[in-house]
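hi support,

uploading two proteins for the ticket. first:
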Amino acid sequence: MDIVGQLQEGMTRFSAQESRVAAFILQNLSFTASASIDELAVRAGVSAATITRFARSVGCEDIRDLRKQLAQACERRTSWLNEESAALPAAWRDKLSLISANLEQQLVSTPESTLQKLRTRLQSARAVHCFALGAQDIALATLLQHQLLSIGIVMNLCQDSALMRMIASTLSDDHLLLVLATGEADAILQGATLLARVQEATIFALTPANHALSNMASALLPLPENAQAARYALLLLVDLLNDALLA
């Protein structure tokens, strides 16, 4: 795994300051590969000492070693691009590389058996429901709802915390519930999910690994903790699910 993969994987264990540095680097690979420690600290909004500690925390000897590994990662990713893509502005190439790395990581972390189980349950469930709260998660859930509808599967999306417990209380073992959360789940969402579990509904969690909701679910399709990465990851999962349902 190269330095970019290490940074993405480390987002689940980094401190708040380290996560801030990692997120900035992942979105600005070309800049970071040539920036001084002071320039990087200013742009990332942390101290130079934090940058030094961060470099060591990801296995680099110092900031020079970090820059070297980032430059090598940029060079490898540039070699994957065709001539037209290679001519794009550096910031756009960084974005493309980051998306590619996110999608690759999502494929690696997605169990094919779990995707097949979800496919089977979507086809056999008497009703399909989805719980999501917050602007980001509701937008992702709405996307999932539209994609499933295009292949003939109706998903009832609940984004009202007051209705979640009421809906959960009506579920049974022939219902499927998807719970989608890219951030921390509040007490209402956790309570409604737990009630659905008591009602013996089949629950699939679309959350980061080790999320509170994943522990209540029958199965987990993991999403990245980073909100932007989660958006691309869900798009990929929807495409994979569509392929499985249409097969």
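and the second one:
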Amino acid sequence: MSEKSAGTGLRVQRVQAAYRQVANQLREQILSGALPTGTRLPSEAELCTLFGVSRSTVREALRLLASQQLIDTTRGVSGGSFVAAPDADTVADNLGGTLGLLVNANNLSVDNLVEARLMIEPAAARLASERAEAADLAALRDTMDQTSKLDPATGFVLHWDFHTTLVSITGNPLLRLMCGPVNLVLRSRLHRERVAASRWAEIDHDHEDIYAAVADRDGEAAERLTREHLVALRPLYERMKAGTENV
């Protein structure tokens, strides 16, 4: 059974929570572009009329959309709910949190995350070699120079920065969005203090080789070296996660 407001095309079916149906239909309009970024949504009273639901139902729907970073709500005379314009970093942080919960619930493994990196980062390295400019290479070089001056616990973050910088050089925000959350979860789960100095030296050497390939605009070598680097790290990640021995 469903209720439909005349002339609007909006409806609520009594098969799931009404607020979720309201949120889902508004979400569809936002994601399809029917409600562009910055658009002010109808008032709560107007939404009640459009959907034929109570004000509390509308408020729950708006809270759900806000929690999904789809709308921003402000108060006051000029306030209301507006279609949000989230930046890539915000989306990546939220996705990283969700992936972390999946790992905690054993619905994702370290191997799953590394496999995802293997699918994305080698291709990104090839693309970076085609698009890198002088400033990009300087930024990539900087992450490498700084790791040699820091202790392993701190340098660990900069070793990850090499990879995030490499992906950023592609200029494709979607690739950054795909890689960033995966790397964030891996970084937070691994026991970096257990990594032997010799391992860091091997990682630094791999980064040097990848950097050289990107700087030489050798896409084939950049892709191959990045893949080999990630494959070599795979067993390291598993032992680091277990935390049973120095690696």
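thanks. also noticed: The chain has a mean pLDDT of 83.
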